[in-house]
Amino acid sequence: MEKLSVDEVSQLVISPQCGAVSLFVGTTRNNFEGKKVISLEYEAYLPMAENEIRKICLDIRQKWPVRHIAVFHRLGLVPVSEASTIIAMSSAHRAASLEAVSYAIDSLKAKVPIWKKVSDGNSSFVK
């Protein structure tokens, strides 16, 4: 999958009715549990992953007055410093969008069937 763009995702949620746009950008870091990392590789069971993300968005709409929601997770190889996840929300006021973004990333990590393989250049292991 091609690189995720923070600008493109944020443009999807901007609205004249909203004074707040909150973003979470998850990037590949160069270490994991004390080991060097050169890349992560993500796999997903797409039908189930998309369904779980829809459920998370429905939960968010019931809990917070957000206007727009965008959730993107990259699949395939993601080198160090590149974005693997971008979540964006817009709302009239900042509290709703900030809380909703935090809930979204926590829920995504807990519920969505996406697996990552960590590579240090010599070996790989699944997390």
From TrEMBL:
CDD domains: MoaE
GO molecular function: transferase activity
An individual GO BP term: Mo-molybdopterin cofactor biosynthetic process
Domain of life: Eukaryota
Keywords (A to Z) from UniProt: Cytoplasm, Molybdenum cofactor biosynthesis, Transferase
Keyword Plastid among record annotations: no
Listed name of the protein: Molybdenum cofactor synthesis protein 2B
